[in-house]
Design a protein that fits this description.
Blueprint (H helix, E strand, L loop, with lengths): L10 E13 L2 E13 L6 E2 L1 E10 L13 H11 L2 E12 L7 E2 L3 H9 L2 E14 L3 E2 L5 E2 L3 E16 L2 E14 L1
């Protein structure tokens, strides 16, 4: 229906291929191929094919010896401060072209675009990068996180829909939408 709705289940990754490698303080997830699926088992929610790579560098976070008893705090530091480089590509996918793919689990930024344009049927692909630089250290020695920078592009090769304030349907839409 072109609207964002709350998912009944949770997004889940079904990993097909890829490499995970830890070298010193660099953790690399290379050439991951997976499907993003929803756990609700709702037949209307189609899976989303994804290719991704992620590099995480722990060097700036290893200022003291790792303590297994304090692993939750270390994991929190990784989430809040670790520099990373994420690249995601979603090859051709479609939405709403038949009853089998009436809904799709997509990142919120892509869902917002589909909703803005009242997308009913879409054939598209997407690229996304997200990065965070190495944290800086303040005068008192605490880490200061760098902002996460997200850039993306949604390529629509065939779409239809209608703006909410412009009720006339649009068909055979072709577009490149960049977002950050």
């Amino acid at each position: 229906n072109g609207k964002i709705s709350k998912a009944l289940g949770f997004p889940q990754i079904k990993l097909q291929t890829g490499t995970i490698e830890l070298t010193g303080t660099l953790l690399e997830f290379r050439d991951l191929n997976f499907e993003l699926v929803n756990t609700s088992r709702d037949a209307r929610v189609t899976s989303l094919p994804v290719r991704a790579s992620l590099n995480l560098d722990f060097d700036a976070l290893l200022t003291k010896e790792f303590d297994w008893e304090d692993r939750a705090k270390w994991a929190q530091q990784i989430r809040d401060f670790a520099p990373f480089d994420l690249k995601v590509f979603v090859p051709d996918f479609s939405l709403g072209l038949n009853k089998e793919n009436a809904a799709i689990e997509v990142p919120r930024s892509v869902a917002d675009i589909f909703e803005t344009f009242g997308a009913r049927e879409v054939k598209s692909s997407a690229n996304l990068t997200a990065t965070r630089a190495t944290p800086t250290e303040s005068a008192d020695g605490t880490l200061m996180a760098q902002p996460i920078v997200v850039l993306g592009q949604l390529d629509i090769s065939d779409g239809s829909g209608a703006f909410e304030d412009f009720k006339y349907p649009l068909r055979k839409i072709q577009s490149v939408i960049r977002f950050s």
